[in-house]
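Re-running CoA-binding protein to confirm reproducibility after the cluster update. Everything else is unchanged from the original entry.
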Amino acid sequence: MTSELPPHDLNSLFEPRSVAILGASSDPLKLGGRPIRFMKESGFQGKIYPVNPKNDEIQGLRAYPSVLDIPGEVDQAIIILPAKFCAQAMRDCAAKGIRMIQLFSSGFAEEGEHGQAMQEEVIQIARENDMRVLGPNCLGVVGVSNRFFATFSTALEALEPSPGVISIATQSGAFGSCAYSIAIQRGMGLSRIVATGNEADIDVASCIDYFATDPATRVICAAIEGCNDGNALRRALLKAADHGKPVILMKVGTSEVGVAAAATHTGSLAGNDTVFEAIFEECGAWRARSIEEMLDIAYFCAQLPEPSSRRAGIVTVSGGIGILMADDCEASQLELPALPDSSAKEIRALLSFAPIGNPMDTTAQVSAVKNGVTLVMDQILSQTDWPIMLLYMAQSAAAPVKFEPMKLELYKLREKYPERCFVLIGPSDAGVVKELEANGFAVLADPSRAVKAIGAYRQIVERRERLRRLPSGPGGSLPRLPDVGNETLAKSFLHEQGLPVLQEQLCNSPDQAAQAAMSLGLPVAMKIVSEQILHKTEIGGVILNLNSEAEVRQAYDTILSRARAKQPDAIIDGILVSPMAGDGVETILGTSFDPVFGPMIMFGLGGISVELFKDVAFASAPLKESDALALVDKVRGSALLKGWRGQAALDIAALTDALVKLSRVASDYSHEISSIDINPFLVRQQGGVCLDAVITRHM
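Result of re-run:
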């Protein structure tokens, strides 16, 4: 959303009582004719005013030469004119008092500088007249419950939508049409669909914000290619979470356009895509990787109660499918507890031929036991509080007549355990699926997709319980950043901010280095200091475990000669002498400034392997201690810090303290600092220490 435009709600976009179509066509197949035809055929109850100076009547409706000739108030105008005529059309709409515009027309910013200028003119008119604009270059709006089919999408030609509670907002019109078509073919009910196009004003975040309090929406799907206002997107996602509405997002494109290339590790890893992922999690949303996944999760969210925990039970007539689902549960962070002894005893008495466990494989022989499958399910449900029950039915639901007895027993279970999530898996007759859904079951043919969807649903609920709301920035005058051009200066600044560093000395001769080594105490480490040399180990600019004055003098000359040979143009500030840091695990602490979301903090395993394994995680700055601990836990290798395989546990409290302090630096100095790279930060059994640091200013 363009921040200078009025923030009034979008009700007249989605629920207009009257709409004018500028550029209306009597041909129902043309762009200017389709919205009229769709609204008439769908039964839209509002008033439709075609505007075209060449016609008195269009598709059976009175046409008007100008929007100014329409009698009475008009809530919304749809403009389908060549780009060069749109500015005047906007002025006419403003004069008529129309405050909501859908601008279907193309030829604006997507066409280059001239189009960008025309788009800016249109938005300036909107800004001056308290108007809101969807588009330009947008596909429009579909309202299923109110039959407001204000679009030219051909997807409506053959696919009649069913009303539901899922709303979809996308930037791309074709993406929205694709999601709409797949959802309708699957029999999913939809509420609203909107494609925002160029997003000169109304964007996907604006639509999510509206859906958050929209009575017709319970589940929100969205797809974005980028974001111009990160704060607006964050607010919208948090608002949806606060109102208990799941948001399933797709972020397509991994381009880092707008992010300055940085020479530090953090800058190279903090691509937009990774940052978006972190923001989604902080705000309670789920990122889907495909349209199918997005719709699967949305379907489960709309169809089932919220799972109260990760605990699940699996009942299957196939051992192999049960193993597959167990693997999928682990990947989806679902738990499969052991069956209670009481349940195991009863099931063993019922199915003496079946192995007892979770997954519970009833085997195909269960067909010889009347209501065997549902009796097993009841035994598990009655003896546990597991909120998720997954049933692999094989081909049972594909034959409606044969499935009838099981179906009736399933309905009894649904009534008996209304708070549980019942997921039925296997090929199913379309009519049977509809009946099962009407009775509170979710049905999918593919076991892996089903497990992934219910696992995502549970994680959405968990994320909603730990939303991150960032504090406001530093008040008063902004702090000034001192000279931090080389490692010594950078670490001195970080030490002033409370981060631990070693006692070190910058030396400019072998004699100074030897004297420093004796003062600090042997053994020592030595490394090159230069603003132009960021990756010191790659040029042989680091030598460790020096145990005598002679070794120190030799190391000084060796490091200097290597640096001059590998980077002859580098300005050498000196050689840093420091005591050996001792044992511990090398980690990386970093910050980056994202052009959309602002300062971000990064943590991962450090040293020279960070770019190879990329085992890192990101979060918005600043952090609280609990945020820092959660960030550490996201990194797979963090197990090394906690006493892996009998090793001593390290000082995670010192690590999280450093992360919190570094995040405050990133937040307080976001106006000057582009990135900070502390690699490595050594975590020891007691305390931690910054062993290297690079601070980069904004260009």
